[in-house]
Amino acid sequence: MGNIVLLAETGSDIPPEAAREYGIYIVPMHVSFGKETRDDGSFPPEEVCDHYRNTGQLPKTSGSVPEDFETIFDRIHREHPDGQILYLAYSAVTTCSYQSGMIAAEGRDYVTAIDTKHVSVGQCVVVLTMAKLIREHPEWSVEEARAKAEEVSRKVHMCFVPDTLEFLRAGGRVSNAAALCGRCLRFIRGSRFWTGILRRRRSTAGR
Predict the structure, then answer these.
(1) Is 62 helix (H, G, I), strand (E, B) or coil?
(2) What is d(CA 141, CA 131) in angstroms, rounded to the nearest whole number?
(3) Are residues 70 and 166 in the same domain?
(4) 147-173 pLDDT, tens per residue?
(5) By the 8 A CB rule, do 64 and 105 touch?
(6) Does residue 194 surpass a pLDDT of 60?
(7) How many domains does the chain have?
(8) How far apart are alpha carbons 197 and 1 in whole angstroms?
(9) Which residues, in sequence order, are bridge partners of residue 89?
(10) Same domain for 185 and 118?
């Protein structure tokens, strides 16, 4: 991939094998189980559901902090002294990660960043698309890659339809009444990300 090294958060849900194949570095976000805070990706996802079933409370998520980025920036620079880091960030309106990355990037002229305005699989699509394009175009400068990443981010649209509204209710995304109606009437609520913000599209009866 030339001298451009891609970086994203664990919240991008990039498969480990894909990260290894393309040399993508991953910076941890964080999850708090009560008083215990752990790095995202350091435990099986099933533990989140188990914690909710056992306590009635969803674990709290938080973004990467400047110290996380300082550690990963220094590691990448040590392993790729001539490399340019292109940080493709988790939606900046949903977490502090992008701001933390910018704080850590001060004085590091080998770091370039964009807000992808995506989370989870949407961010994953942007990062993996860029990994493939950079491999196909090793002649690209980091500024050319940044411009292409912004273009790719604008073209990606992410939406999802949850199986149940229970976890959205627990996280405060829908009201108790909406969750109850959804359970009784079997409504499914579709949502999508638009300019980095989660928006409800429509509710559909049945499955």
Answers:
(1) strand
(2) 14
(3) no
(4) 999 999 999 987 766 666 565 544 444
(5) no
(6) no
(7) 2
(8) 31
(9) 115
(10) no
